[in-house]
Design goal:
193 residues, mainly alpha
Length: 193
């Protein structure tokens, strides 16, 4: 199977996930700016989640540039990632509706953590099918310290939710900012063979 079908399916599902998320935002009933105040937590949650989905979409695109072939493991690893990402709208709505209460903040972190784990598993499936440590992806990501530290950050944020959910929100935002900085590892390896 070629990678184009996998990429198109993933792109389509991510577009649907983002669409579902934006449809959860309700328009204020009045035209005053004060009508937006109650929506601020929901808008903040939407923006952070949109950024996360954008990061995954962007990195998924770069990741698939390294793929030479697809097998069942890669397809299932990709589906595993998409499953966790498909839950982002639910936790986004919950955390926004409750203004980052304890359990919604924990659930949001759990989805981010599982998405991060799924990402690492997808990378490993691609490395395995494309020749192991000699593959382009393996050379590009190395030990993927950034990905592993992100998962540790999500786990810490989940635990810190029980101290103060605002700390966790800060960690989620910080990790997103780290991933917004363009990761040139894959591009460098693909361009230089």
């Amino acid at each position: 199977m070629g990678k184009a079908r996998l990429e198109m399916f993933s792109d389509g599902l991510l577009a649907i996930i983002i669409t579902i998320m934006v449809l959860e935002l309700k328009v204020p009933e009045t035209a005053s700016l004060s009508a937006l105040r109650p929506l601020c937590p929901k808008l903040f949650a939407y923006v952070i989640s949109f950024v996360y989905l954008g990061i995954y979409w962007n990195n998924h695109h770069h990741l698939l540039h390294t793929v030479k072939q697809i097998d069942g493991w890669v397809m299932w690893a990709n589906m595993h990632l998409l499953f966790w990402l498909s839950l982002v709208p639910f936790t986004t709505g919950w955390i926004g509706e409750t203004e980052a209460a304890l359990w919604p903040t924990v659930a949001y972190g759990a989805i981010l953590f599982m998405s991060g784990i799924a990402w690492l598993l997808l990378q490993q499936a691609i490395v395995h099918i494309d020749g192991g440590t000699a593959s382009q992806l393996a050379r590009a990501i190395g030990s993927d310290t950034k990905g592993k530290l992100s998962c540790l950050g999500y786990a810490a944020a989940i635990a810190l939710s029980f101290v103060d959910p605002r700390i966790s929100i800060g960690i989620y935002v910080a990790i997103a900012i780290v991933w917004l900085i363009p990761d040139r590892r894959i591009k460098r390896v693909v361009e230089h063979g």
